[in-house]
Amino acid sequence: MTLGSEWKFSQVFGEQTPGQDIQDCDILSAMEFDKNGDHLAVGDQGGRVMIFERQAGKEDLFECNSRSDSGQFNVPQRQHPEFQYKTEFQSHEPEFDYLKSVEIEEKINKIRWCTKLNRSLFLLTANDRTIKLWKIKEQKVKKVKQMDIDSSVTSENSLLADRSYGQSESSHANGGSIVWTNKNSKFPSHLADITDVASTRSRRMYANAHDFNINSISNNSDGETFLSGDDLRINVWNLEVRDQCFNIIDMKPKDMEDLTEVITSAEFHPFHCNLLAYSSSRGFIRLVDMRKSALCDHNVRILQDGGSHGSKTFFSEIIASISDMKYAMDGRHILSRDYMTLKLWDTHMETSPVATYKIHEHLRPELPKLYTNDAIFDKFDCCLNGDGLQFATGSYSNHLRVFSCGTGNEDGITMEVKKDPNRKPTSQATSRPRRSSLSNLARGFYRQGQDLSSENEISCNLKSKLLHLAWHPTQNLIACSVGSSLFMYNA
Description:
It comes from Anisodus tanguticus. GO terms for molecular function: protein phosphatase regulator activity. The B regulatory subunit may modulate substrate selectivity and catalytic activity, and may also direct the localization of the catalytic enzyme to a particular subcellular compartment. This is Serine/threonine-protein phosphatase 2A 55 kDa regulatory subunit B. Residues 414-436 are annotated as: Disordered. The protein is mainly β and 491 residues long. The protein has helices at residues 155-165, 316-320, 367-372, 438-443, and strands spanning 8-13, 28-33, 39-44, 48-54, 83-90, 95-97, 102-104, 110-113, 121-126, 131-146, 169-171, 177-179, 188-206, 216-219, 225-229, 233-238, 245-250, 263-268, 275-280, 285-289, 300-303, 324-327, 333-337, 341-346, 355-358, 382-384, 390-394, 399-404, 413-416, 469-471, 477-482, 485-490. The strands form eight sheets. Strands 8, 9, 10, 11, 12 and 13 form a six-stranded mixed beta sheet that branches. It has a four-stranded antiparallel beta sheet with strand order 1-32-31-30, with no helix packed on it. The chain starts with 7 loop residues before the first strand and ends with a strand.
């Protein structure tokens, strides 16, 4: 597919009606396709995780045997995949660390799919401090229809019915199960249709290893380990061991006043289990080989933009901070997103990126205003397609930006994400005051978040921002979030 191909709206879940207020807990905060693209997991600020499943047959070729008016057979066309809601569960709850007097939000920061085993799905979810491993399994459930019982049933039998059938589940030798759905004092009469129900269960919880907010989790290609990163440390875990991890990177100085940069993102190499990369608030990407040393702080190669454009200003260091980073499937290229640009890196070239794409260059003169209202600290995700030749990220006014490598079109494609282009924008949730971030403190730039009332002086809607998105691994399909709505676009 070329960049000139038309991107169009495909699906929307949880679309907001005009003028409807969005609750803070309903705002989507993370999303991830699984390896095959058959499932999409989406997390929100209320600690919930929703699973969407690819509809069977939607990606097949249509056999067009009828002749067209010209007498020729129609060419079969491939339809884009469509998804349907599967299940949801509460992954995290709000907590309070009494030793440090810190409130731990339930917001889902990251979601990562693990290797599928025995037709069961596994995924990792993380909030600021805790990572959980979840198992999602489909099981056949026989629904039970109810019938009224005679009033002469004894109170003892009624009590037995309440206890045994109120909310219980029994197993059968054929692997199915019966779910008694009666909540009154009634006996079951006969079985209804057998349906597939997805059950979720927390398998393990990995906790007490991070003193700062978790910003990254990444599965290793060995299928056995994963990493978790916060502002100052990166740990490696074994999926089977919940109470022990290995710290491979520690950037915490002896005196916190000497802190100059923090870790912003980390990811394992797609197929070399000993390699990983992590980005920093100074705009650097460090490449690590775990075979060289148990502690990987110094044995690194650094990718940095040596030819940074323009003169240095007060805001140069802030906007250089990398908010997201993704390995391409070839393992050689890395895509990174900072506040103003999207950059493609070749890991064999340390001095400059292969390509730089400007996202909202018209905001550069407005950096002082963006700093005043705290918008300059917004963290945008980035993603790329399976062949690593197309990239996407978000911007303000709910704009989705799509670029293609080697086309000579540095402006790419810009789309406003909404189902109806003539619809009025919905009311966005009122943002909480921004909590003190270690990355902001490291630069000495932290200030309390202020009202975005000055946004009418800026040429975009700062309250409507597309922060999170994911690219389907095999199809030209992009999932992105706008507030509490999940949109999908295909080409």
